[in-house]
């Protein structure tokens, strides 16, 4: 049974930082494309970042470039999203997702939620003073 469990969310002031974690069981994340998505109330789920199977390929949404960093720890079978310089526009539920097609990152489709097979339950990030 595949499980992805997010942690590290919460309330942070504008300009602050958070690191989200995505712990996997039932799969080895190194063999998967891992993505982070977010969904604000009343909005569609949107792509944030993704990392390839070996961790050497990454891609970011324009809104995340220069502020967010995606990474993984093979020993812990965990992926991370380091978020810096947070603004209220970053307030959303954040989801990690995984897909066995690591070549997806080489296509225009890595940002599409429907391309990912496995999803976590999501975790809330609220940026507010």
What structural category arises from helix and sheet content? Answer: mainly beta
Instruction: Please provide the count of β strands.
Output: 11
Flag low-confidence runs: none
Order of helices and strands: EEEEEEEEEEE
Distance between the termini: 40 Å
User: Rg to the nearest angstrom?
Assistant: 13 Å
- What percentage of amino acids are in beta strands? over 45%
The amount of helix comes to under 10%
Anisotropy-based shape: globular
The major pleated sheet works out as: 7 strands, mixed
Mean pLDDT: 95
Please work out how many helical segments DSSP would assign. Answer: 0
Topology:
Layout: E1 3-7, E2 10-12, E3 18-25, E4 33-39, E5 46-51, E6 58-60, E7 68-73, E8 78-83, E9 92-99, E10 118-119, E11 123-127
Parallel strand pairs: 2-11
Antiparallel strand pairs: 1-3, 3-8, 4-5, 4-9, 5-6, 7-8, 9-10, 9-11
Describe this structure in words.
The chain has no helices and eleven strands. It has about 130 residues and is mainly beta. Strands 2, 4, 5, 6, 9, 10 and 11 form a seven-stranded mixed β-sheet that branches. A hairpin with a 6-residue loop joins strand 4 (about 35-40) and strand 5. The protein is globular.
